[in-house]
Amino acid sequence: MPWNSANTAAHTGAAKPQFRPGAPLAWHDPRPWTYFDGEQAPAAPALRAICSCGWVGPTVHVIDRTRTVEQNEKALRDEWSRHASEAALEPANGVLTELIAMLNRLTVDDPRAALTMAGVLERASRDLQAAAAESARAAGDSWIVVGAALGVSKQAAHERFGKPGGKARMRPGPTPEA
Ligand SMILES: [Zn+2]
Question: What is the pTM of this model?
Fold first, then answer.
């Protein structure tokens, strides 16, 4: 059965049978891979993850028929999940790259305006980090996961976002270190 992700309607994933290395995967074949069991149809030796956007996962998973469908699909589904998350970030990445390039030009053309904009960005970034960390924690992510997503250690993430009424929730204003 297909995999869906909440924030990426354009990306629907599935595990598809791979009959020979390098053989094309039949996205449009509606039959589940479990149909290819050697009785109803030729047995499929392996599976790969595929997405409706055309993406094909790198991992070839050798089917272990002593295990459940979920167990056989787990690694492929995780792989597809990462793909869907990255795809969801693409539009924001494009806009950010453009904005940063624009602000870089501003540092030469109008340095004071660039400083003002950098300050606005810094405050927006702090608020975003705090809100996202709170959502991630509410969804059950550990401090290790929150820190890794932000590119800092578990301790740093906890220090920054873990304290009630801590720095993270501070509203825009003059910063003490200014
Ligand atoms: Zn996709």
Answer: 0.62
